[in-house]
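Review form for a predicted model. The reviewer records the input and the model, then writes brief findings.
Reviewer: anonymous (R2)
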Amino acid sequence: MQQGKHSLIKIPRQRGKTTLLRVDAVAERLGGQCADIYFQELNITGKWADAKQNGGFRYRAQTPAEKSAKRAHWIRLGPVQLKVAHGRTHEGVKYLNFYVKNLGHTGYVIGGLLGEDDHTKAEKAPNACLHLMAL
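Model under review:
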C-alpha cells in the first residue's frame, strides 16, 4: 500500500553477515491518489546473484524484456528460484511481477517483506485513501 523502495528478501536476515541474496523493489502508485501500486523496478543482488551474473539482475517495467527473454523463466540462485515477468494492464500501465520458490530451503532466517521483517508500515493505506464511516 506504500510506494517507494522496499526490501522484499534479504538472506541472511542478520546484519554484518555476507548477503547471499537481496531483492529490492521500487513500487509506484500509477494513476490517481489512491490508484493501484505496481512494481516498477526490481534489483536482485548478493553472492548467489553474482555467481549467476556479475553485478546481479536489474529489471525495469518501462524497459521491454530482451527478445531472447520475452517469456519469463525461473532463475536458480542458491536453493531459491526467482522469476520476473513484465506485465501490462488493460489501460496500458507497465509493471513487473515477481515470483519466488523455495525460500524455506535456504537454511537461513529470511528478512524483508517476504521474510520475517515488519511489514506494518508497507501495508498501511495512506490516510487519504481510507474509507471511514461514522455511525
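Findings: The first strand starts at residue 4 and ends at 11.
Further findings: Residues 27 and 39 are 4 Å apart (CA to CA).
Recommendation: see findings above.
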